[in-house]
Amino acid sequence: MLLLKQSIGRRNAMIVRLYSLILSLGSLTLITFSLWSVWSKIANVDESHAGHVEYRILTIENVTSKPFELHSLSDTDLHSLIDLPSFNFNINQKVCDNNTKLVVALVHTAPGHYAKRQAIRDTWAKMIPTLFFMGLPDSNITQNNVILENQLYSDIVQGNFIDCYRNLTYKHVMVFKWTLYYCPCARYLLKTDDDTLVNAPYLLEILNHRLSPLGARNLLMCQLILSSMVKRSYRSKWRVSYSEYPNRWYPTYCRGWAIVYSPDVIYKLYTEAQVTPYFWIDDVHITGTIAVKQNITQTDLAELAVDESDVRDDKNISRKFLFCLLSEADQSMRKFWNIILQPDDTVVSSSTNFGLDINVGNN
C-alpha cells in the first residue's frame, strides 16, 4: 500500500513538472513570438525609411508647373468636408490674396485657448504669417469671445463643426481646404499645435538656404512615430476599437504638433482624405494611412523637434531646434522666445546640414 502511494505521488509529481514545463515552453514561445513581431515591425519600418527620402527642392531651372490645379476639384468640394455635406467657414481669412509667401503657419487651437494664441502672437508669429484654426465651442460665451478676438486680430479661421478630440481630423482637413482655396501661393505650409514654440529665425534660414526659397515638392517633414501599437485599453483617451481600426499597428506617421508640408502634398492628402472613411486620430489618419495611399514618404525632423525638458536648462538654445513642444505654453513661450532672440556669436554657413540627415531627390 505504501509503495502504491509512493508510485502515485511520483506520477503526480511528474505530471505537475510536465505541466510546468509545457506552460514554461508556451510562455517562452509567446514571448519569443511577441518580440519577433515587434522586431519585424521595427526592422521593416527602418528598412523602408533608411536613406529613402523622395522630396525635391525647387530651383529656377526646375520650376516647371504649379503644385496643383484647383479647378480639378468638384464644384461642390468647397462645402463638403469628408462626410460633412454642409461645411462652411464660420469665420474666414483671405490674407494671402494670391501673393507668394515663403511659409504660412496654420495652428490647431481650441476656442478657449486664448492665452496660448496670445503667447504665439507675442513671439514667433511676429516673423511668420500665422492663422489659428478651430471648430465651434459648446458655449455661446466662448464663441462671442472668439468673435471679439478675431475682430481685434483677424487671424482666426473657424469651421462649423464642434471642436473636440473626436473631430481632430475634420480640423486637419479643414486646414488643407483653406490652404488650397485661400493660400495656394505659399511655398511651405507649417502646421502646428498651439503649445508649439517655433524657432522662427532658424526655420526661415533653413527654408531659404538648406531647402529652397522657391519651395519643394513631395515634402512632408515631421518628427516620426515608428512601430506604434494601437491602444485598446478603456483607460486611454486614445483608445481605438477594432471596428474603428482593425490592425494591430499604426503605419509610420507624424507627431502632429509640428509638420512642414509642400503645397502639392497638401493637395494629395486633401483629395484622398475627402474620399477616405473618417478616422478621428488625425496624425495617424492623415500623415500615416493617407500618406501611404498617396505614396508620400515622410522626412524625419529628428533632433530638430524637441520637448521642453530637452532645452529647459540650456541658455544657448537658439541653434538647437526648430520646434519645441511646451508643457505650459502660455507661461513659457515668451521666456524661450527671448532666449532665441539673444545675440548668437555662432555664424552658421548656408551649406550647413542643420541636423537634417536627408537625401534630396533630383527628379
Textual characterization of the structure:
α2 (114-121) runs parallel beside α9 and α4 (168-182) packs across α7 (282-293). The chain is built from nine helices and 13 strands. β12, α8 (308-311) and β13 form a beta-alpha-beta unit. It is globular and about 90 Å long. The strands form three sheets. An eight-stranded mixed beta sheet has the order 2-5-4-3-6-10-9-11, sandwiched between helices. The protein has a three-stranded mixed beta sheet with strand order 7-13-12. The protein has a two-stranded antiparallel sheet with strand order 1-8. It has 363 residues and is an alpha/beta fold. The longest helix has 48 residues, at 2-49.
CATH second-level architecture of the domain at 75-223 and 254-305? Alpha-Beta Complex
Order of helices and strands: HEEEHEHEHEEHEEEHHEEHEH
Report strand order across the widest sheet. Answer: 2-5-4-3-6-10-9-11
Percent strand equals 15-25%
What's the helical proportion of residues?
25-40%
Shape: globular
Mean pLDDT: 85
Secondary structure tally: strands: 13
Oligomer: single chain
Name the CATH class of the domain at 75-223 and 254-305: Alpha Beta
Query: CA-to-CA gap between the ends?
Result: 89 Å
CATH topology assignment of the domain at 75-223 and 254-305: Spore Coat Polysaccharide Biosynthesis Protein SpsA, Chain A
Radius of gyration (Å): 25 Å
Main sheet specs: 8 strands, mixed
Keywords: Glycoprotein, Glycosyltransferase, Golgi apparatus, Membrane, Signal-anchor, Transferase, Transmembrane, Transmembrane helix
Membrane topology: Single-pass type II membrane protein
Family: Belongs to the glycosyltransferase 31 family.
EC number: 2.4.1.-
